Amino acid sequence: MRSPLLAGRRVAVVHEWFSAHGGSEDVFLAIAGLVPHATRYVLWAEPDAPIDGLALRQSWLARTPLRRSKALALPLMPLAWRTLGRPAPDVVISSSHAFAHTVKLGEPDATRHLSYVHSPARYLWSPAFDGRGANPVLALPRRVLQGVDRRASRHVHAYAANSAEVRARIQRYWRRDATVVHPPVDTDFFAAAAPEGPAGDRDYLLGVGRWIPYKNFALIIEIAARAGLPLVIAGGGPEEVALRRSAQAAPTPVHFEHRPTRERLRALYQGARALLFPAHEDFGIVPVEAQAAGTPVVGLRRGGLCETVVDGETGFLVDSLDPAAYRAALARLPELDTDRIRRHAAGFATTRFQERMAGWVADATR
After folding, report:
1. What's CA 65's distance to the chain center, in Å?
2. How far, in Å, CA of 167 to CA of 207, rounded?
3. How far is CA 210 from CA 42, 207, 302, in A?
């Protein structure tokens, strides 16, 4: 029997904050599963987090009101990561989309610090992507935190990035290289037949994700209207009221599925004609889930979608945010083969992540 990863070595696995399940939390749990004997650290766990008995050590920020406001807590996060104590494990693996990569639980000559990066903090380094950092008043604090971010991560021995897009950002912002390890996607689950059957007969378009500005759900409504097809929007978020208002004015039916279960989401994927995804994502797990269900993706030719969709084979990539261009791509959907779409998605399965992640950790800790 193969020995567990890093067996016999003291290991810490670190994540930002633990909230309701998202892509970064799934990666953290997958890493923790590879190293079950590791001690797990987070800044805090939110009250509705599905911890399910998972032992998590929380920082002192968890005992303050700041845990309720990520924006207010942001300037103190590097300090929190540097004041966890000095357990001095042999290996630290951080799962980072803000400042977790700056954690220092031992001196670099005795502790190997590895960091899996979902993205350098978008509101810090890429405010055009994330409105939380775009306010001009924040320009000076942002530059200060950028310097802190870069200096406080010099001890990291090796980086992994969840996509080539994020690897390029690490090179540009931190002047470091990274190994690309795509995140785990439960492709087997979404490929399996939904017990209740698909939610339709490929007769509607689908949008899935958080209802926030950069996901472009208002554009998705317009694309469906131009195509003359019904639309289902699944997810939840602060733009709900505005999106429902836009849907009422649309000439074609728009149905909202508020925070569907995984089982319901699988049925929605399997019943859709295509997933619309006109957003610039770091990686994008939703398009892979859709393809695992045999559903093609029509999305923006930027970011992670360039790595997860094979243009002309598993979907179509569009160079603009022009609804007419998406309508033209939708007209070509009959050219695609469902089995080819599913086979491609299988390349992002959880087992592939486990293999690549274990290989990267082993190489970086020799």
Report:
1. 26
2. 27
3. 23, 10, 19
User: Which residues, in sequence order, are CB contacts of 339 under 8 Å at separation 6+?
Assistant: 294
Confidence of residue 268 (pLDDT cuts 50, 70, 90): very high
Taking alpha carbons only, the member of 315, 194, 203, 216 closest to residue 260 is 194
For strand 39-42 and strand 272-277, is the pairing parallel, antiparallel, or unpaired?
A: unpaired
Which residues have a Cβ under 8 Å from the Cβ of 63 and sit 6 or more positions away?
none
Residue 254 carries which DSSP code? E
Residue count of the chain: 366
Q: List the alpha helices (DSSP H) in the chain.
A: 23-34, 70-73, 77-82, 122-125, 139-151, 164-169, 187-191, 217-227, 240-249, 262-271, 285-292, 305-308, 323-330, 338-345, 350-364
Q: How far is CA 111 from CA 10, 149, 231, in A?
A: 10, 20, 51
- Ramachandran assignment for 14, one of left (phi > 0), alpha (psi -120 to 50 degrees), beta (any other): beta
Q: What are 226-237's pLDDT values in tens digits?
A: 999 999 999 999
HSE (side-chain half, CA atoms, 13 Å) at 234: 23
Q: Residue 302: what pLDDT?
A: 95
Contact status, residue 357 vs residue 179, Cβ threshold 8 Å:
no
Q: Which long-range contacts (CB under 8 A, 24 or more apart) does 129-135 make?
A: 129/214, 129/280, 130/214, 131/213, 131/214, 132/71
What is the pLDDT confidence band of residue 72, given thresholds at 50, 70 and 90?
A: confident
DSSP for 54-114 reads ---EE-GGGGSGGGG-HHHHGGGHHHHHHTS-----SEEEEEESSSGGG--SS-TTT-EEE
The amino acid occupying position 301 is: R
Q: Is-contact 292 284, C-beta < 8 A?
A: no
pTM of the model: 0.91
Residue 234 to residue 261: CA distance in whole angstroms? 10
C-alpha atoms less than 13 angstroms from C-alpha of 205 in its C-beta half-sphere: 30
Is residue 322 classed as helix, strand or coil in its secondary structure? coil
Q: Cα separation of 251 and 126, whole Å?
A: 36
**Three-class SS of residue 293?**
coil
Average pLDDT over residues 279-290: 95
